[in-house]
Design goal:
Histone, subunit A; two-stranded antiparallel ribbon; 14 helices; alpha/beta; single chain; six-stranded parallel β-sheet; Rossmann fold; globular
């Protein structure tokens, strides 16, 4: 049996803790785990890769020992990993956790995975890599405006809804239209099935922009101090071909360029910081578009235990996860 193509929403079956990168999700999740009988499911499209630990800020061995974690280390870096594969594994994990009488808590910041879990998902057909390669070549030659105009001809609704620079999803929309003869905007109707925040347990950590940028810079500096270059060097040695999806992880492509002599270390670190800040802005834009999300305001004076206590207090008025 292959991977299913449609998945129902998990909104009423789990809790969700999200937010931009470096916002402290893992720390708050650890605090929640100390107070509740829960198990954590990664909501991150890059922690599914083995050996990609430092650059993805994967939970430490100590964190994983303290609280059961799921959906980490699913495949090697040379393997593609789709949203459908993630959702198949996520639904199976939720079933098992619920059967044990535990609370499933999704923790992470990949917006598509979050939206698919909250509203359901139609995965569509498998990737056509040759078609994608041809479209990427056209994108390189003619630019993003030409790509958007092409999408407007086959799926004007998607062209209107997608961010002007979201080339990955524009290519996917063209691919689905080609393979199915139907616009993806006509298929993914689940995404319109929104819920209100008071009918879900979906909490997003929110920092003032300048503080979040400081946290990102500190995290990136620590990643390099902890050996990110050595990690990427070992991955390249053992996996000569890195998958397209794995290469989307911020920090890895930049270090590959360093290893190829295209940049020096200082420039590489600054690139990773800049690209991580861009990622955080995209994540926050997605989160603001989701009605299910309740933002939890953070500042440097609030301890993470206090944040966890606030979430627990809010949860008392929300529906309890059902099996």
């Amino acid at each position: 049996m292959g991977v299913p193509t449609t998945f129902p929403a998990l909104t009423q079956r789990a809790w969700f803790l999200t937010g931009p990168t470096a916002s402290g999700k893992s720390t708050v999740a650890d605090s929640l785990a100390q107070q509740m009988d829960l198990e954590i499911l990664s909501l991150d499209s890059m922690t599914v890769y083995r050996r990609m630990d430092l650059g993805t800020a994967k939970p430490s061995a100590a964190q994983q020992q303290q609280t059961p974690h799921h959906l980490l280390d699913q495949v090697d870096p040379d393997a593609e990993f789709s949203a459908a594969q993630y959702l198949e594994a996520a639904h199976a994990a939720v079933d098992k956790i619920a059967a044990r009488g535990k609370l499933p808590l999704f923790v992470g910041g990949t917006p598509l995975y979050l939206k698919a879990c909250l509203r359901g998902f139609d995965a569509g057909p498998p990737a056509d890599w040759e078609f994608r390669k041809s479209i990427e070549a056209e994108l390189h030659e003619h630019g993003v405006d030409a790509l958007r105009k092409r999408l407007e001809q086959v799926d004007p609704l998607s062209a209107h809804q997608l961010h002007p620079n979201d080339t990955r999803r524009m290519i996917r929309a063209l691919e689905v239209a080609k393979l199915t003869g139907q616009p993806i905007s006509h298929r993914q109707v689940q995404f319109e099935a929104a819920h209100s925040a008071d009918q879900a347990n979906v909490y997003a950590l929110h920092w003032p922009r300048n503080v979040l940028h400081q946290r990102i810079d500190t995290r990136v500096d620590q990643m390099f101090a902890d050996g990110l270059v050595d990690e990427v060097t070992a991955i390249r040695r053992d996996f000569p071909s890195i998958s397209r999806t794995a290469m989307q992880a911020v920090g890895y492509k930049e270090v590959f360029d360093l290893l190829d002599g295209k940049t020096d270390l200082r420039e590489t670190i600054e690139q990773v910081k800049a690209h991580t800040r861009q990622l955080a802005r995209r994540q926050e834009t997605w989160l603001r578009s989701m009605s299910e999300v309740e933002f939890i305001e953070l500042n440097e004076q609030r301890p993470f235990d206090e944040i966890a206590a606030e979430i627990l207090e809010k949860s008392k008025t929300r529906p309890k996860p059902s099996s």
